[in-house]
Amino acid sequence: MRDNLPAARAQYEQAIQIARQVGYRWAEAIVQWELSDLVRMQGEYSLALALIEPVLTLLRELNEQLRTAYASEVAVPPLTPILDQTKLQTDPQIPQITQIKN
């Protein structure tokens, strides 16, 4: 699916809706985790973080301790520095550091 990320994204979104409709919360969590990873690959870091946070909640509710720990350690931390760096680059309230040319 890496060759066609928009199609993969649509399929993940559809799968999440189906999982919700039938009440299959575990599948909803796992597919939304995959969707979070996909949008991260597309550079949508804020959306990726917004998608992974409810996954952690679902996994905790389902008592999926191993997956919750893995998601907390693998999925979330790589997004945090990227978001912080993006904020530093785009927030007009934060002074920008310019490179001195020699």
Give an account of the 3D structure:
The protein has helices at 5-22, 25-41, 45-61, 65-75, 79-90. It is built from five helices and no strands. It has one domain (2-89). Residues 86-102 have low confidence and may be disordered. It is mainly α and 102 residues long. It starts with a helix and ends in a 12-residue tail after the last helix. The longest helix is centred in the first third of the chain and has 18 residues, at 5-22.
Query: Strand fraction band?
Result: under 5%
- How helical, in percent, are the residues? over 70%
Give the tally of structural domains: 1
Instruction: State the end-to-end distance.
Output: 45 Å
Bulk shape: flat
**Please, how many helices?**
5
- List SSEs in N-to-C order: HHHHH
Overall number of strands:
0
**Residue-averaged pLDDT:** 75
Which regions contain 5 or more consecutive residues with pLDDT less than 50? 86-102
Observed structural traits:
flat; mainly alpha; single chain; 5 helices; disordered C terminus
Overview in brief:
With 102 residues, this protein is mostly helical.
Compile the SSE list and pairings:
Blueprint: H1 5-22, H2 25-41, H3 45-61, H4 65-75, H5 79-90
Helix pairs in contact: 1-2, 2-3, 3-4, 3-5
